[in-house]
Amino acid sequence: LGKMSMIKAVVYSSFIFNFLLIIGSNSKKKQGSACPFCCYPTENIIFQNDNIKVFNDRTPKATVHYLVCPKIHIESIKTLEPSDLPVLIEMKNVANQIVAEKFPNQKYRLGFHVPPFYSVKHLHLHLLVEPFYKFKKSKYTPYFGGLWYKDIDTVINELHDKAV
């Protein structure tokens, strides 16, 4: 590519990236009557308590692929507020408890897709026990500073920093 083509590519990709960020950001609602995760069938839930429910991902990308969701409807990591920190910490604790009980000594990941790179507008933590299925690992790796995926600790730290 020539110098001018590279500049155009950077400008266009920057425009597209910013457009996608605008589309995927900033709405939060506490009720989700039409949300598939708010209305998830009870018989398919593998764990739940007063605040959190866990179920299998319908299109698993690893040997074990669970979704850990708050029962309260939060749209995405972009709509989180500092007051949501306890929910995130409980999601992480539940995920770690499941791993400790069911998959001890196995490598796993905990993270979120960043809008607009997600399919259901309800906050859900991916709990993935490796190995990944063929060519799926990159979708759950925080490349480019978390452009499309962020691990749970990064999200918690960012929200904590926002609170201070």
UniProtKB/TrEMBL annotation:
GO terms for molecular function: hydrolase activity; nucleotide binding. Keywords: Hydrolase, Nucleotide-binding. InterPro entries: HIT-like, HIT-like_sf. A motif (Histidine triad motif) lies at residues 122-126. Residues 33-140 form the HIT domain. This is HIT domain-containing protein.
